[in-house]
TrEMBL record:
Pfam families: DUF2169. Residues 22-380 form the DUF2169 domain. It comes from the Bacteria. This is DUF2169 domain-containing protein.
Length: 412
């Protein structure tokens, strides 16, 4: 199949299988917007389309904040086959109000869509009430630790801080790694299944393994600085994992007993619970009956990278995003950044049997980088290969009222 990109943005066509083993042509298109100060009203900023300067390039592999597979995912590959919901992802630093160092403060993300008009269509001359799609608050604090004492690990008071990066490293989670002699397997290597890169979690065998390795026990360990209001970390979580490897279902059962949950706004790792469990079961039954296809219990929700409470239905026009204390104070208005996504539409023009067929693309990834004040959008369109598509064209429409297919009218 031939693919033509008739837009100034990055687009790519590739193939993928659905849950019924049917092949589909997938067209992904990405555009980037710069957030610039607005002209007043509810929105503090507006979106300006960026030229192809790198921010809007499709990612072919995952990008990390630090070491690959051992740090927060900065941005995930854009080459998913299908996302059943739209990911709303935020990369940000939480700033104390006024950039004045504080022990604690809150940060908030809210996403709203246009509400349904009232019966009769009369909104009283104003906009119908907006409906909340995401409303998420994080509690943020300065650096703090769990310090070892005779009566156990004691949580210290936070130190004042002006800013805290919103990364999974600052949230509940962690890894217990005790190395042996060079060239030998570690004495212990266990991770928190819900967030392997975080802090505030320890496997129960850690201190014994350190003693066996002849290594000193730590006097203090970092405590989470980013929390969910309903899951405040009050103590060091010491978890007992089985001494043998466990499969994904058992990971979920063990994680259900963790006393706290991680909090963040970015991509959840592919191998983290609960995302890993959505990839399905790859056991003997799969090898015998389904290999190389997807397992019967595979869920395409696996391809959604955002935390569950940041996944929304594929949006239409009128999406508004608001951030509180998640952008440098000099770029925000009293700590708030608010913008409305332009009513732009990406779509594929599929040529089937010599006729053009417009295929709307779903906006399935909305990423806000509040550190660079750049917003990126990824749209995705799917067409079954069985339809005999000879050519697909990537197209982009900025007029929300324009038809996707414009027919030429001949004159008599």
């Amino acid at each position: 199949m031939e693919c033509q990109n008739l837009t100034p943005f990055d687009a790519l066509a590739y193939s993928a299988l659905d849950a019924h083993d049917e092949e589909h042509h997938v067209l992904a298109l990405k555009a980037a917007y710069r957030l610039v100060p607005g002209d007043g009203g509810e929105a503090t900023h507006r979106c300006e389309l960026l030229p192809d300067d790198g921010a809007g390039r499709l990612l072919l592999r995952d990008a990390f904040e630090g070491e690959a597979n051992a740090s927060s995912v900065r941005a995930e590959s854009d080459l998913a086959p299908f996302k059943p919901r739209c990911d709303v992802l935020v990369r940000a630093t939480a700033w104390a109000p006024g950039e004045e160092p504080a022990e604690r403060w809150t940060a908030r993300l809210r996403v709203t869509g246009r509400g349904a008009p009232p019966p009769g269509g009369d909104a009283g001359g104003g906009e119908p009430p907006r409906r909340a799609l995401v409303d998420k608050t994080l509690e943020v604090c300065g650096p703090r630790w769990f310090e070892r004492a005779a009566e156990g690990w004691q949580l210290t008071r936070p130190e004042p801080a002006a800013s805290v990066p919103v990364r999974w490293e600052r949230a509940f989670g962690g890894r217990s790694l005790v190395r042996a002699a060079p060239g030998r397997a570690p004495l212990l290597d266990e991770v928190c299944f819900t967030n392997p890169v975080g802090c505030g979690w320890m496997e129960a065998r850690t201190l014994d393994a350190l003693r066996d390795a002849g290594a000193p026990a730590p006097d203090r360990v970092a405590a989470p600085q980013i929390e969910r209001p309903d899951s405040r970390v009050t103590r060091l979580a010491v978890a007992s994992h089985p001494p043998h490897a466990v499969e994904a279902p058992q990971m979920a059962e063990i994680a259900a007993d963790y006393p706290f949950a991680p909090a963040g706004l970015g991509c959840v790792g592919r191998a983290w619970t609960p995302r890993l469990q959505r990839a399905g079961t790859y056991g003997e039954a799969w090898v015998a009956g389904r290999h190389p296809f997807l397992p019967d219990d595979f869920s395409f929700a696996y391809w959604n990278a955002a935390p569950d409470d940041q996944q929304i239905p594929h949006p239409d026009v009128g999406l508004r995003v608001e951030l509180w204390n998640l952008a440098r104070p000099g770029l925000a208005c009293d700590g708030r950044v608010a913008f409305e996504l332009p009513p732009h539409r990406a779509f594929a023009m599929a040529w089937i049997a010599g006729l053009p067929v417009p295929v709307p693309a779903a906006l399935d990834t909305l990423s806000v980088d509040a550190e660079s004040m750049v917003v990126t959008c990824v749209w995705r369109a799917l067409v079954a290969r069985a339809l005999g598509v000879r050519r697909m064209e990537a197209r982009f429409e900025v007029d929300p009222r324009a038809p996707l297919l414009k027919m030429a009218v001949g004159r008599g």
